[in-house]
Amino acid sequence: MKKYIYITLLTCGGLFSGCQPNLDLGNPNALTTSTYYKTADELIGGVNGAYNIMQRTGGWGMDMPYMLNAKGDDYTFTFKASAGFKDVTSLCSYTIMADNGFSHDSYLAWYVQEYACNLILEKIDQATMVNNDTLKNRLRGEAYFLRGLTHFYLTACFGEEIPYKDHTPKTNEDFYPSPLPKGQMYQKIVDDFVRAIKLLPLRSDMYKDPTNIGRATQGSARAFLAKTYLMKPILQQGSLADWVSAAAQLDTLINSNQYSLTQNFRDNHTETNENNQESVFEVQFYNNLNGSLNNSVNEDFILSWGQSDQSTWRQINIGMMDASGTNSTWWNMSPTPRAVNEFERADNTNPASSIIDPRYSMSIWGPGGASFDVRADAASRWRPYEQIVPVSSPNYGIYLGTRKFCADKASADPGYGDGINDRLIRYSDVLLMYAECLVELNRPNEAIPFIDQVRSRANNQLTLTTPADNFLFYAKAPGTLPTVENLIIAAPTINGTQINTLRRAIKHERYVELFSEGWHYFDLLRWYYNPNDPDASTTLDVLINKGKAENNTFSFNLAKDEYLPIPATELQRNKNMHGNSAN
Amino acid sequence: MKKITTLFVFLCLGIFTLLAQNKTVNGTVTSITDNLPLPGVTVMIKGSKVGTVTDLEGKFQINASPTDVLVFTSIGMKTEKRTVGKSTIINISLTEDVTQLNEVVAIGYGTTKKADLTSAISTLSAKDVLKMPGSVTDALQGSVAGVQITAGTIRIRGVGSITGGTDPLWVVDGLIGGSVPNENEIETIQVLKDAASCAIYGVRGSNGVIIVTTKQGVKGKLVVEYNGNMGTGYPWKTLSMMNASDYGNYVNELFYNYYGAANYAKYVPLHDQEPTKPLANSNWQDAWFQHSVYQKHNISVSGGNDNLTFRGGLTYSDYTGVVRESGGDSKGAYANAQLKKGIFTFGMNFNTVQNYNYSGGGGYTNLLTEPSNIPIYDKTSSTGYNITGTADDGNDMINQIALLYLDKNQSQDVGVKGTAWSEVAILPYLKYKISYGYDLDESTDYGFSPMYDLGKSVNLTAYLSEDSYRTDHYTVENTLTLDKTINKHHITALLGTTYETTSQRQFGAKGQSLNEDLTTMSNYQLSPGVNGSAYQDNLFSYLGRVMYSYKDRYLLTANVRVDKTSRFAPGKQTGVFPSFSAGWRISEEDFMKDITWISNLKLRATLGWMGNDNIGGYYDYQSSVNTANEYYTLGPNQNSDASNAPAPLVTTIASPDLTWETTRDAGFGIDADFFKNRLNVIFDYYNRMTSNMLLQENLPLSSGTTQPLAVNTGLLNNQGVELTITYRDKIGDFSYSVSPNVSFNKNRVINIPLPQSSGNNITLTQTGSQVGEFYGYKTEGIFKSWAEVNSYTYKNPTTGVVSLIQPNAAPGDIKFKDLNNDGSIDDGDKTFIGSPIPTASFGINFNLEYKGFDFSMMWQGDYGNQIYNNGKTLVMSGFNATNQMTDMLDRFRLTDITLTTPGGVQIFLPANTNTEIPRAVLNDPNGNMNKVSDYFIEDGSYLRCKRITLGYTLPSKFSKKMYIDKFRVYAGTKNPFTFTKYSFFDPEVLGMPYESGGANLNRGIDFEQGWSTASIATREFFVGVELAF
Questions:
Q1: ipTM value of the model?
Q2: Which CATH number fits domain A23-313+561-573: 1.20.1510.10, 1.20.58.1970, 1.25.40.390, 1.20.120.80?
Q3: A-chain residues within 8 Å CB-CB of B480?
Q4: So where are chain A's domains?
Q5: Measuring CA to CA, which residue among B1005, B1004, B947, B1002 is closest to residue B976?
Q6: C-alpha to C-alpha distance for B198 and B206, rounded to whole angstroms
Q7: Which helix or strand (DSSP H or E) is residue B54 part of?
Q8: For A115-155, what is each residue's pLDDT tens digit?
Q9: Is A567's CB within 8 Å of B701's CB?
Q10: What is the pTM assigned to this prediction?
Q11: Number of other CB atoms surrounding residue B445 within 10 Å
């Protein structure tokens, strides 16, 4: 009997001894929000996290160059987009649906950036262990700037009736924001940039510590504030551009002596000379060969493989066409022949005469342009356009590639990426914006020197030649572009418009100087909404006729196509949200 | 070896001492099915208490008078009687008792007699599993009502969750989540379908439980068994793609219809400019597929005596896949033993398996779109493969055959499973058992890509990646079981605890090298990268069960399980899940005794609650910040890692209130046997209500997080009936059985606060809908003329302006219905257009036996479901220069087209308006292909013959001469016939796996993402041999 007692005791002991595994486990893969963001470095990291979104697929890593350029008359889709990337086709041809991949990814990415900005603003306030108020204020400034940028681009693309949040979600309802009522978003963007201007140091101060090179500075916020004033008709429907406020900011910026034009126009689009004296704000890239190909914010990438890809895919997306079959690019979007024709020629009445604007060959791969390193065989690696698309080909002058912000040679695996920073705003844009303000404020004579600054720089002899353009005229001697006064006197007709007024000259100048930098489509809208511009009513004809120019049937309809539709996924998941005029 | 079972020693003593006898009768008892001797058969003299049992050779000896009647009884066999008469030798063969009412069924932490069951459990025997080569899943398909298997995904009784896991729980020899053994080693498979049976597994029981019991040694002589088979297969269907000249014509028309006669020639890609002179006429699918060859061998040894039984063996298999450059092999060893000593029983199980698989690169989806007019191979190319996907072809399709041969993927894994347990009978009716289980899985994946130039894809360096996973799974179970009969009351009770931990660590590295001949990581130091992850999942439970029966006819069961999980926040971890069931064996009642045509009739009813904690993540209640590998680029040195500035990102947002999902299951069932057990009917009705559903709620894009939030929300209902009928009979030497089964399931979302859609927005799940219903536009065929396009208009009621509803349409484009009547085709016009959930699933098994021959056949099908054929956007797309199916030859054409291609070839394309296939036009201006619509909906019903097997067993009189106990050869085929209206590959559409975020929201969407040939059904032929001696 004793045996049974022992066995029974043992059994009950085994059954109910509470031999229980630990059920409160910490995640071994990640830190948590309640323990992180306590030290100065962690706060800096939090702000960097907000910048980082712009590097990703939804930002300039891939989507934003399409989002900003595709709708202009200077870009169109290629046959390759038709075959493989219909999202490009629909953007270029105004047949965009609410399920477009670019608008989906960008919209998503911007709101992640908004969240990151709000989170770090809250965490800076809570970080009582950090006593460095100078640092804290600078970081706040960066966060306000990035949040302003978020809403600036979102509004420009999707219209003003979109969600706006200035805090991280606290309740379940916060995950389902309503759109901001009309007439409020513009002021919120202005407010964030104004806050940033007050908090951010000047560029020269910020860059004293070289590890800060690439961060937003007071100048960045000021330039975007000016941009916001100018784009008010787009950001707040039914209103007019605020030329006075814009001119004031631009004047301060120019007189801050922080910026100047680079010697070489080309310095603004290459891997070297990034964050140079002309740069006002750039999205930074580094062709990190260790990075994962997939750097989207909306996929599980973040939790899985490798480090974030810090490169831009612009080269592979829209760089050189691969007519020879070996250059390994996707080439989904091509400059239009119209974009080529905008560059001034020796004889502007004769389309066969040679282009005298050096900026053409530095921006576009096309007839008579620079050579491309096809990488295939060492003997003749550098091939001029004519060897890639022969003059005899029907595609000559139609198949065009983008050189600006793209490498001169075929991107090699891995990554397809490039490290070329995307200059969102540079000083020449500032000068041209200021010139435009002065014209609108009836001070045309003051505007002329600023335009000529830009034009004369374009004429500078190129000092950094490679086999890509060492055989071209501008590598051997300065260019011969006339001053803007002489241009107006000559009054050539370019792309159907006679350049005989200062307004028209500025429009022409912006087209060629800032080609492929994401502003042209918005410039066209701005000018259309400018009641002082005698050409306003016909400004959008180039978009309306874009299809005809390409033997296509599509057409631009301002009421429907001005903005991109609110992504279908957003509307489905967020019952508080409604569509816009494009849905 | 002891020849007489000790348990029966007293009986034998009785025989010699108590009775005076006339003579000694000797004999052998064998089984009629395999002629093998039957040990342990009780031989009793009728009307007396005298008897004996057969020994291990099936022999017995008994003293009896000529008038005595000997009664032979054995569990699972029909009782036979024989009068002694003048014989001194009585040999007898027993047949299996087909009703198997005394069969013992595993019920989770114990067993019970099938007759006492009060819940819905289906059983599959070793014989059924071995009908054909293949996995356990293959064997289950079509054999068990209520179990739906589509291309490898198992769902028991409908879809119980929306984005939570719906895979059933596997229990192998009592080890939860144990690796499923080689099919040769399976004794039985039991599918636990309702709450009453599953609730004892609490936590993961809500999707059903599949209990696998492996074969154990039996006492008796040493038996060596061999089972081997080999076979070959090929996809039962490949797509009929356009040949080179048809493709060339298609491309010319594509550009012609878009750019118009005047301009199109400028745009036609070079290789398509002369359709009559293609560079090649390639069949890419032929280059991709091959006939697979596989073989499998299993050899086992088993035996034992009264104290020890043992079984062990080896298994080997290899195969080459239906996709070229793929194959693998598998080697395994296993052993189990049981030892009895007094009141103690010890047991152990050991199983190890080593798998190796390899495959090439490339993807089938891309392969299908490769134009047929460009060559696959090119001798002048450094890789031997033609560069495809250039401006000359008008597309960017990389040569997938090149990738198939150049890229190498390999995976190796080793699984070791061990269980050890010890049982002590404290009292004859009270047992305590402690069991330890340990399961280790180590796997390594390698990916290698050499240097090559394929145009669009160029490897300037060779790539190597290697990933290792180690998963440790550890369980401890303590149970106390009481089993007591007091008069006519029988009580079984169980009390226990279980302790379970699962942990995984993963580590990976990758790098590049300029020397592709070396294939170890240390040679790949260019651009290296490392990664790693880990998780742990812990669970602790109390369990209790009482089963009570009175007079073998009134049956009651009550279960309760208390689970605690580490997946939820403290305070939310515990869930309590009770269940009750009752049974009434009417056939045992006195008033039924006279109804002889009913042999058995039982009513069952159940009510129970089950819990589910499988939300996918392990730490969902914690907000996490990812710091690893998150950088922004800052500073002066932007060509190196020096510019990497840490940029942590919040990756998951906490869901602190997350807790158990609960399923309430109510149902009733009938088990009945008629006509002396010839006809067996099992009927079940169930009604399951899932509440507090674990949902990965996809947040709005503007919420600021990209990760779905895990929440408990909503109410989901599944109801259905299941019916299995088996009829078996024997006419002389000819015996047969026919067993059809059918199940009907109705799924409805009672309430869900926020509609859920699949990643590609093809399905929508909302209140009132089914889970994962297709959601899109209704269509009304295609426009046949300009008049039809121009008359499809809308008149604005306020302005009176008349406008075209589809302004971009042309004849040959799809006409979409303007359901909300607002003059445009937009999101408001979407509606439910079909469901991937079948109304009914059915299966039917046939078995015939005649002398040594056996024949079996199994059919399976689904009825009433739809498939969303997303494949049309790929190879019936009509908007780009990629290859198309031959069905596209019947595309719409308003008028005759005569065109001269840029290469100078005259093409005549006749008008074709009597068709429903849209026109070919570059860029798809009308959005025929990018709108989710019922144009893509197809009937998914099918009927498929899953297998036919014919076997022959050598009669024992021949085999005995060769010292062989059993010799059976068999041959058969898998998937020989399929009847379906589905136009693409296979009606058994593989959804995206749950692990990839698929779950049930994108079920039934074909070509939903990169489609792999792994899911295509192959038609196979196999031969095999079974041998025992």
A1: 0.91
A2: 1.25.40.390
A3: 11-12, 15
A4: 23-313+561-573
A5: B947
A6: 7
A7: none
A8: 999 999 999 999 999 999 999 999 999 999 999 999 999 99
A9: yes
A10: 0.73
A11: 16
